[in-house]
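Thread title: Can someone regenerate the structure for this chain?

I was given the following input by a collaborator and told the matching structure tokens would be attached. They weren't. Posting the sequence so someone can regenerate them.
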Amino acid sequence: MAPSNSLPTSQRAAHFMPSHPPSTKISQVAPVPTIPKSGIYTLVRVLSSSINPVDYKIASLPQPLPRIMIGSAPITPGIDFVGRAWQTNHPDLKSGDLCWGKDGIAKAPEGYLSLLDQGRKLEELGCVGVAGMTALQTLLMGDLPYNRSGGTETGGRVFINGGSGGTGIFGIQIAKHGLRCETVITSCSGPNTELVRSLGADEVIDYRSTNVVDALKEWSRNNGPLDLIVDNVGNDPNLYWQAHHYLKNDGGKFVAVGAGVSLSAVTALTKMMLWPRLLGGGKRNFHLFMLTSTKKEQWDQFGRWMTEGKLKTVIEDGNVFDLANIGEAFEKLQTGRTRGKIAIKVAEDGH
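Best answer:
Regenerated them for you:
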């Protein structure tokens, strides 16, 4: 049953309060957006969403930076979604259709509804957005055989720093089963080793008991250099400064995703980006990944991999929160010890 085309006058929404660290409140009378007169747009009744570290990191910046980067107040966290189209002028959607995506794109379900027939939940689609596209797009930046050949060749060696978080879990699966890399190395704490191996990691470094940089040096001495490093953590600048010991010189890339919002973290990141090699700077290509893009073909590919069983969303028990408890969800996310994704249940699917 399609929803009525008439819009409610208000909606329930989570908002960040202007505090440090940011806190959340639930508004029962948030304004409902309208579809602009030009362009292709879909207004979605969201059923499930997800939160990501970027949500609280941007909101934690001093004003007016959050408003410059996100838009006018109030700031609403969470741009991933799965829901039903309420109003749309999208050629592939009609009112009532299930759709998924992130802010800026609403994907028609196409064959992805078969995921639900397989017993998988709507929350899996609602958690892909930022983490899934970040994982895919950072890996596509690498000089890997799959990327060079347009998907016809296999191989390549990748290190993913932070393998048990939302982005890392997608990254391991994409690298191994999507891009068909020869070797996927990742880091995580010891209790998460079994999980990341089950997703496709060939080698696992327990960062609590082993120095990650030393472990990569040793591995490279025995097996050769890596093609790509994706750093989802950003807590150890030495991982980049020592990269010439384990990242290949010709075409090797270091892609930084995780970054702190403290002055020291910003200073370290600026140094890695701008300090010339001749003056003692890094000896390998450094790239800062800032924002995920919304490319239709990449969403299509991600959906195909999901229906083929190559990718799955990891949402553990205790990591699904009602919208009213989003503050608790952020507290858990900010510990940095969450395995997989945190899902936010927004509404029931009454069709």
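Residues 166-178 form the longest helix (13 residues).
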